Amino acid sequence: MTTKNQALLTWIDEMAAITKPEKIVWIDGSEAQLEELRAEACATGEIEKLDQEKLPGCYLHRTDPLDVARVEDRTFICARTEKDAGPTNNWMDPQEAYKMMYELFDGSMKGRTMYVIPYSMGVVGSPFSKIGIELTDSIYVVLNMHIMTRIGAKVLETLDDGEFVKGLHSRAQMDASKKYIMHFPEDNTIMSVNSGYGGNVLLGKKCFALRIASYLGKNEGWMAEHMLILGVENPEGETRYICAAFPSACGKTNLAMLIPPKAYAEKGYKVWCVGDDISWLRIGPDGRLYAMNPENGFFGVAPGTNEKSNPNALASTRKNTIFTNVCHTADNTVWWEGLNKELPENAIDWKGQPWDPAKFNKADKTTCAAHPNSRFTAPAENCPCISKEFNNPNGVPIDAIVFGGRRAKTAPLVYQSFDWNHGVFVGSIMASETTAAAAGAVGVVRRDPMAMLPFCGYNMGDYFAHWIEMGKKIPHAPKIFNVNWFRTDDEGNFIWPGFGDNLRVLEWILNRCAGKAKAVETAIGYLPKAEDINVEGLDGITTETIADLLSVDKDLWKEDVVGIKEFYSKFDKYDTLPAELKKELADFEARLG
Ligand code: GTP
Ligand code: SPV
Ligand code: MN
């Protein structure tokens, strides 16, 4: 494999001079080369080959037990000024950051191989796709990037002497105290050291496709969002597309692949998955907003995935999949909490220790066989409901944008914003309980605007302003909604059945977009009447339950306003909160009375 791209060759030379690998191997994307790497990683124990009859092409990997999730406190936006990174990001001066990182990378690949991975986010060669090069000393990273992105010689060919995003990753000493995930948006550069976990090291994903891309999008007039993309096909055979932004581990993969409830399937409803995590959105020639999924696979949460909750995700993991931090069973397959009711005997837990099912206690995460953030990396083409538009470089036209999070109270099952700017406000005040997808406390409510809090590559006030500006530029803008699948009763149980039944809510959303459904106006937005959510075939859920799920408690919202104001006040320092959002907040308070 060769390239004439002098900037690329020079950069690789410079990075190799710092990291000092024993050799450099270019990843051409061929099955022969990948197979060699799998064999090498099996020989060193980096991955284990699973039962090839039951799970052909599947492997298991365990990370360091202290390296199991994204590390937000070690993730930095190294923009030129602190203002450009904004109050919600960690910031470091770029010169200082480069100096520190080059010291940490000094000799970090000694005795190891540096792999050069050319990858494309989006269909190779499409004008809407972008190319990255990741240099890494981890075969696990190479094998995952092969599933999650389009890699190899074909990417290098289309790069020619064009621009690319530089990514440097080294496991180095895997020293947690020296773990850093650094972004240099003004230089199209990402550096990650001392981690081997997914979101920290698969640099095409959150680092490039969200943090760097959101910055590029602001400058180039498009948007990079933490959103799934799905198509709902009605019995007449028309497909309408929806993008939805939920925080990490709040249901994107599940919604993107949902199986319609029986009553819907019988009528002929179908759901098609275009993407489960990231959307790149542009205005099309017809004035509508188009979404494309820059990824080529799913890096999905394993626990809770089963034949009932998400059969499409489970089916996607039955071949050519890498499992990370799940439980290894005695018959050389995998298991995780919620896969089925049978607790495996003689299994090995995610830390590599014998697992005792007798000591398992659902409420105590430390007794789990699989880590709560254990994941599968599965090729998109495995998914039984993958959309025929998956490889359409232009993406799909979007009717509705849906925000949502985990809220035990306050947020109703669904509501619609009054207009685009109010929709931006609704996205900006999103709050959700934290999950195991990031290191730190779980279950604490925090503000997570547009599910982008950990992923926005620049000042979030400017990001809100970009949303407002986009609204002015899209002639036929999608309608904006908010959903909450996670309201609980007094015992803490989820009231709404969720999963496939979420289609009942999407139906109201799409009917609203088509001007076919009624709504009631409330202080927070337009809500369905309880009888407008179809409960046909739902066990134990009546129109009264729906009424309860749709209730708007003004006192709870008044409490929420305190939290919104506190969050908004973070933007005072550089005065970047758009006037439009200040007005929306004032109007909201007035409506609450
Ligand atoms: P990331 O990959 O971290 O971005 O997560 P995600 O947003 O794709 O979340 P995912 O679909 O993997 O769901 C995370 C967890 O939420 C899983 O344990 C699911 O079982 C659970 N979950 C998903 N959808 C629903 C739902 O509708 N209701 C309930 N109660 N739980 C859900
Ligand atoms: C998330 O945390 O939102 C994920 C997994 O999708 S990771 O790739 O680790 O970011
Ligand atoms: Mn995600």
Task: Describe this protein's structure.
Helices cover 29% and strands 21% of the residues. Strands 1, 4, 5, 6, 7, 8, 9, 10 and 11 form a 9-stranded mixed sheet that branches. Strands 12, 13, 14, 15, 16, 17, 25, 26 and 29 form a 9-stranded mixed sheet that branches. Strands 2-3-19-24-18 form a 5-stranded mixed sheet, covered by helices on one side. It is an alpha/beta fold and 593 residues long. The mean pLDDT is 97. It has 17 helices and 31 strands. It is globular and about 65 Å long. Helix 12 runs antiparallel to helix 13 (460-473). A hairpin with a 5-residue loop joins strand 16 and strand 17 (289-292). The protein has 3 domains: 6-46 and 73-221, Phosphoenolpyruvate Carboxykinase, domain 1; 225-296 and 388-592, Phosphoenolpyruvate Carboxykinase, domain 3; 298-382, Phosphoenolpyruvate Carboxykinase, domain 2 (Beta Complex). Bound molecules: guanosine-5'-triphosphate, sulfopyruvate (SPV) and manganese (II) ion. Manganese (II) ion (MN) is lined by residues 226, 248, 277.
Key attributes of the depicted protein:
Phosphoenolpyruvate Carboxykinase, domain 1, Phosphoenolpyruvate Carboxykinase, domain 3, 3 domains, nine-stranded mixed β-sheet, 21% strand, binds guanosine-5'-triphosphate, binds manganese (II) ion
